[in-house]
């Protein structure tokens, strides 16, 4: 871990009592110190803790409120790890988002490229351009979505605690030469011990333009353990091999298919606007595009903040937003104000 590279005065009386010492310990536990069973348990406990610490201020004595129409989505998330939802952007908003991201710089990576620049500057051999949350949140349709109380309630009800938006990002993936890299290989996210993502396609996504893929029921031990017990319980060697393999951060497609039949791998193709929630503690990847690029957007809702990222919220009142969007923080619903506090103040 990079914290070990920094000189730390281990003889100082406040060593291990400072905020950053605890953040480093927390990240170590999250990113390698604990097995999945323990990580998921910690996620549940931290949700209980946050619900008790924050819930009374937001909702009084009431449980986390959510729209009854979202009950099936919450159930589907619990059971399979994902849930399609109605398109969150209109076609006109998607056009506006495309326009917006042509005019702001992002981080170019993948293939043999790296650097900072605009979409028009991305070289043909690059794999990605990612736009930072501080840039994305000022795009009016995205700003509106970040403040969508119904979506935030859905995410919170699934998490079991008022959600924190720890990240929102838009990114293009390109059909660059070379093999799958980074998030194009199956992996599980470790942004928090408990989290859920909203993904939105901003271009049409076919098999050739890098569909997102997810291995059903791999997100939470309450569903994964019964599944694997049933599948490999009678073969102790395979059972053990599976859990060791699960802890590897990145996995090949061939290895995934050794443990899971193809029909348990959900591949999300769909027209631009396609929107779905997914618990990315489960195995997933963004398939490497082969025939055309893909533009996507995501919001990462978690129970605790993402400690490996600095908080640098934008000031709402300073954003140049069109009328109709609430920019007075004091006037927001308490849940939305709480959820967006890492990104906007
Ligand atoms: O590009 C994709 O579909 C995968 C993205 C991913 O792995 C993530 O957002 O955690
Ligand atoms: Fe991921």
Would you kindly provide a written description of the structure presented here, covering whatever features stand out?
It is a single chain. The protein has 345 residues and is α+β, with helices and mostly antiparallel strands. The chain has one domain: Jelly Rolls, CATH 2.60.120. 35% of the residues lie in helices and 17% in strands. The chain contains 11 helices and 13 strands. It has an 8-stranded antiparallel β-sheet. β2 (106-109) and β3 form a beta hairpin. α3 (71-80) crosses α7 (149-159) and α8 packs antiparallel against α9 (236-247). The longest helix has 24 residues, at 36-59. The chain is globular. Bound molecules: 2-oxoglutaric acid and fe (ii) ion. 2-oxoglutaric acid (AKG) binds at residues 173, 183, 189, 212, 280, 284, 286, 296, 298.
Which percent bin holds the helix content?
25-40%
Low-pLDDT runs of 5+ residues are none
Strands side by side in the biggest sheet: 1-11-7-13-5-4-2-3
CATH fold call:
Jelly Rolls
Largest sheet features: 8 strands, antiparallel
The CATH architecture:
Sandwich
Q: Strand share of the residues?
A: 15-25%
Taking all Cα atoms into account, the compactness measure Rg is 20 Å
Keywords:
alpha+beta, 11 helices, binds fe (ii) ion
In short:
The protein has 345 residues and is α+β, with helices and mostly antiparallel strands. 35% of the residues lie in helices and 17% in strands. The strands form three sheets. Strands 1-11-7-13-5-4-2-3 form an eight-stranded antiparallel β-sheet. Strands 10-8-12 form a three-stranded antiparallel β-sheet, with no helix packed on it. It has a two-stranded antiparallel ribbon with strand order 6-9.
């Amino acid at each position: 871990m990079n914290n070990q590279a920094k000189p730390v005065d281990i003889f100082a009386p406040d060593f291990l009592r400072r905020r950053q010492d605890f953040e480093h310990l927390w990240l170590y536990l999250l990113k390698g110190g604990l097995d999945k069973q323990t990580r998921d348990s910690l996620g549940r406990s931290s949700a209980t803790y946050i619900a008790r610490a924050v819930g009374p201020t937001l909702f009084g004595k009431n449980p986390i409120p959510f729209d009854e129409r979202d009950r099936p989505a919450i159930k589907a998330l619990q059971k399979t790890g994902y849930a399609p939802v109605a398109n969150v952007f209109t076609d006109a908003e998607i056009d506006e988002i495309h326009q917006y991201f042509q005019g702001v710089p992002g981080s170019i990576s993948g293939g043999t490229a790296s650097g900072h620049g605009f979409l028009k500057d991305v070289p043909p051999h690059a794999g990605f351009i990612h736009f930072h949350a501080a840039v994305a949140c000022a795009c009016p349709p995205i700003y509106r979505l970040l403040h969508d109380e119904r979506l935030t309630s859905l995410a919170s009800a699934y998490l079991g605690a008022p959600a924190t938006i720890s990240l929102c990002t838009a990114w293009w993936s390109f059909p660059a030469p070379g093999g799958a890299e980074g998030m194009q290989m199956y992996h599980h996210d470790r942004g928090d011990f408990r989290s859920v993502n909203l993904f939105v396609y901003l271009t049409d996504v076919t098999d050739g333009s890098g569909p997102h893929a997810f291995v059903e029921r791999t997100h939470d031990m309450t569903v994964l353990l019964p599944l694997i017990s049933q599948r490999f319980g009678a073969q102790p060697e395979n059972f053990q091999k599976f859990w060791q393999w699960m802890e590897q951060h990145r996995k090949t497609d061939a290895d995934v298919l050794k443990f899971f039949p193809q029909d348990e791998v959900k591949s999300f193709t769909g027209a631009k606007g396609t929107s779905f929630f997914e618990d990315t503690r489960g195995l997933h990847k963004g398939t490497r595009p082969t025939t055309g690029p893909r533009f996507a957007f995501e919001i990462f809702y978690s129970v605790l903040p993402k400690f490996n990222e600095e908080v640098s919220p934008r000031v709402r009142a300073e954003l140049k937003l069109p009328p109709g969007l609430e920019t007075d923080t004091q006037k927001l619903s308490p849940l939305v104000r709480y959820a967006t506090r890492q990104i906007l103040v």
